Records
---
Amino acid sequence: LAKLQIQPTDLFLERWFGMFCEVSLTLKSQETANIIWALATLNIDPGGGFLALWNDCFTREAGNFNSQHLSNLLWALAKLDIKVDEMTGFMPVWYEAFERNHASLKSQALANVLWSFAKLKIEPSRQFLDLWFDGFKREWLHFNTQNLANSLWALAKLNTMSERLLPESFLDLWMDGFIRELRNCNSQDLANCLWAFARISTVEDVHIPDAFLKQWDRQFRVESQFFNCQGLANVMWAMGKLEL
């Protein structure tokens, strides 16, 4: 249903959740990840009773999740605004699974994981960040503009909780990747990355190359008609903060 973008009826959901309770003990890792992803995609609030059973499934199958499953289910919980700190044992188990699987994370999964941390307001451990940056260095050539913008946005959000999260090499690689893909950048990505630079600048020194600013301005003119009010406000705030 989620893949086909078909919104289920209330009666269907009532029966489905009832059946889930009956079969939850038999669910495998892929099914566990797919279910929460589908609920998030359809914007269906699963409720606390379901989440308790789902978390039991997750904990039981933790050793069988691959990197894509871990990214998808964390993204789903973030999209549903689930308070993961109230899910017994969830994050320690997720961290352990992430450490086992981090080397196989692709660009989209890396961006989704970091975005999810920021959305869920989870303060990342130093070990997690080191593993994430290792993945970024491996996959940065495959990041598109949305992944790059979302990752920088997330790091800007997380920087308000922990100072100096960024290794020196990160912004150099990020700039190279974003400038290379800038002509594919939409209004949301343009606003997000400039806002992120302004937010990060309140914690640590950030140098924005003139080449980036020139190309950003050129793409802004192309995409200007698609900016919404919030995007325009974020851009204006960022320019003031960065003294552009």
Note: The two ends are 47 Å apart (CA to CA).
---
Amino acid sequence: ETLWALHASDPNYNILNPCCQAMNSPNPPGIGFNSIAQKTMDYMIDEGPGRDDFVRYWKLMAEAVVDHPSAYAAELANEPMTIRRREMFETWRAAAEAINSVIPDMAVAMSDTGENGLQPAWVDKIAGPSAFIEKDTVEWLKSSTTLFYAWHWYGFPVDPDTAAVNMKELGKDWNMPTFATEFFDCKAWKSAAKYNISHTYWHYSSYCTTGPAFGNRSAPNSTFGACILGWAGGNSEYDCE
């Protein structure tokens, strides 16, 4: 936690702080489940001021883009690292309802732990009752006309066809389309296409010049962009056809 405090309040915190640098390169997955990260997630999804601020943020975002037809969807949180699915989906519901109160037809993404295409069995075992979504929220998921289920594939499950089939079944069960919003590998592209699932490759171009891939330039004076994961991952020449 002491390391996380370095450069606090600096507008370039996310490219100067060593923990943020570790997240960006090489991004060890365990960082998402350390104590401070989980406290942050709990604050965001538990009923109270954190959830209220999160919902208010998304309502303000909707109000800001209400007259921009190109803003057609909202993905509420990228790869949310919490196994407390009950509280997480209550938060998604509150945010979606706030967004749709401003833009009734804006699509809103629902996503699960880490945005995986298949939830590991250990999630239910460790999370206990918090792993299970409230019944009335499940019914809301099934009855809504603006939701879609966003998922990623980065090697789990090993065969992306397994993830795609699982997503097709979840889509049927929850009565909503699914969307593979991130992946690196053409195998995932082809699996999604095979099962008629919308898909977007991550990602088209690098949006920063920070970190070891760019020679560890001095930040922020010799770098460009607000790096928040995906350093040097861009490839505008990528083609899966």
Note: The chain has a mean pLDDT of 90.
---
Amino acid sequence: LGEGWQGVKELKYGKSDTFCEFLTHLERGEPVVLRGMGQAERWSALKVCTPSGLKKLVSHDCHKRSIGNLRVDVALNVEERSGCTKKARVRLRDFVHKLHACDLEHGGKSVSKDNDMGYLKQIQCDRIFGDTKELLDPVKTLWPDAICPTGYFWAGPSGCTTGCHSDDEKNILVQLYGKKRVTLVPEAYKSYLYTNSKYDSGTTCCDVDIENPDLHKHPLFKKVIAAGAVRTVTLDAGDVLYIPKNVFHQVTSETISVSMNFFCSNW
């Protein structure tokens, strides 16, 4: 690749040497996938965080409050790129019921994005689930000395996209339902990614679509392609992707998708 890591290593979770190999990639600042971690650890989140499981959750009062009535913002466009950010505020119950109906209609398979539904993204997990440790705890398993990791919840139909960006914290993305495609570019190629000024100092957003670039509009990205610096991995339910801090990534739902991610700045 020139500067940066040599691709995305995939490890089968549960093998005797997996943890040591995972730590090696972490120390090198390289992305790595742990396949089947959720199934091996028997996460209840794999049942709760399905469209049908979420429908049950929002249809009852939980944690002494009506989760279904929670007002949440859904994204109606790719927020990370320059231009107007479009959002809608909806009740969580209404969003989940639409997601469930879409899942029943299409059987979880890839379908065109339902623009009316939007993308529920980066909602703090404790707003919906309370303490997520009963559902899953990948941070404790992988980094037992981590302090106060922050978890976020994501859900939407196929085609939902989080535009290319980087974060200043180490990150693990946990796929709980459906498929997500993650495209990554090393930090060394930042100057070719057309960064913009959206969001806070902890996130660097980009205008270029690193999956389907418009090379007339963003000609510098040709250098990233020529260097072979773009890497893509697809996650299935139960898979975990470690994304080092400052690595640029773009995420697209290939099917109806539910996931969580956890930031932690001290490991």
Note: The first strand starts at residue 9 and ends at 12.
